[in-house]
Amino acid sequence: MNSFQVNAVILAIVLTALVLCSGCTQPAQEKTTLKVIAAGSLLSPFAEAEKEFEASHAGVDVEVEGHGSIQVIRQVTDLHRNADVVAVADESLIPDLMYREDEKTGRNFTDWYQPFATNEMVIVYTRKSLYSDEIGPGNWVEVLSRPDVRVGFSNPMLDAAGYRALMVFLLAGEEYGDPRIFDRVIGSHFDPPLDVSRSGTVSTVTLPEIMKPSDGKVVIRDGSIYLLSLLETGGIDYAIEYRSVAEGMGLDYILLPAPVNLGRDEYAENYRRANVVLGFQRFSSIGRERTGLPIVYALTIPSGAGHPGLAREFIDYVSRQAELGRPGWPAPLREAGNA
Q1: Residue 103 pLDDT exceeds 80
Q2: In total, how many domains does the chain have?
């Protein structure tokens, strides 16, 4: 066998080996993406849930995206984005905004939801905040009313924490017998001023379609979590936030009285004394008016979900974790008597 023949045999052997080896290599399995759109106050706990769920579900990639609770739902109902799980900080938003027909499919966006946690509103601050060395449960209204104190809350048109912030000050007026509290801290610092009407013991603030602060006292952002960077840099002194977020971020906070904080079932009738009418005209027939209620978080699976079975597993997992009362998570339902 001459050298040419030897080289030809060697080449044939190498090519055969390469073909055989290529048959031994399996292509990488494509992962299943579970799309979760959640309220901003759930981003931190859901980041933990994402890692843990993926660890127990090989081949699953959980993608969590955060918005204000109204915006969470609008991603599905208005923008027609695909989502497997919707998680909001106000359970009443789901029936109000999703129990209706999707014109594209002829089905309701959803027909059910699962409550899974509760929370309460607090006042968060840092050591940079003006008067941080003197504010407390007994004088928080007086401190926040001072002209040089800057107060932040999220946009009520987009986020449940935003309209709840307004409710806190409406309820504080009832609790402390001073109906001017809302105007001093918030209402008079918008152009036009936020209109509050009163019928008996019920106070209602009607919002314009575009909310424009008229001075530097009040700052609004699309979601409550976006206020935290402003708080840390001194852009605002105080923010109205969920207790779970304050604790999860290690922030100082002031506990509010139970009749004001929207966190206790036994004060449900008291909370109903505060109403916020959103300025979005397209919401006129589907939940434009938000009534004060105890805070309850909820989950649902949109009718167009691509992976409803996996979504159900994720919802069950998250519900179990919430029941454990983990740091940074909203409180278990049983603490508010909702179990």
Answers
A1: yes
A2: 2
Residues 158 and 210: their CA atoms lie apart, in Å, by: 12
| Model confidence at 6: pLDDT above 80 | no
Sequence-ordered list of residues with C-beta below 8 angstroms from that of 71, at least 6 positions apart, any chain: 158, 159, 222, 223
- CATH number of the structural domain spanning residue 68: 3.40.190.10
Burial of residue 225, with CB atoms counted within 10 A of its CB: 0-12 exposed, 13-18 middle, 19 or more buried: buried
Among 32-46, 111-125, 221-235, whose mean pLDDT is lowest? 221-235
Over residues 26-37, the pLDDT tens digits come to: 455 689 999 999
Tell whether 109 and 221 lie within a shared domain: no
| 276/289 Cα distance (integer angstroms) | 6
Q: Please provide the size of the chain in residues.
A: 339
User: Rounded CA gap, 94 and 299, in Å?
Assistant: 9
pLDDT given for residue 223 in this prediction = 81
What angle, rounded to 10 degrees, do the helices at 43-56 and 308-323 form? 120
* Ramachandran region, residue 325 (left: φ > 0; alpha: ψ -120 to 50; beta: rest): left
Provide the pLDDT for residue 23. Answer: 46
DSSP labels for 21-61?
A: HHHHPPPPPPPEEEEEEEEGGGHHHHHHHHHHHHHHSTTEE
SS3 190: strand
**The domain containing residue 105 runs over which residues?**
32-118+296-336
Is 225 inside any structural domain?
Answer: yes
Q: CB atoms < 10 A from the CB of 12, how many?
A: 10
- How large is the angle between the packed helices 69-77 and 160-175, nearest 10 degrees? 140
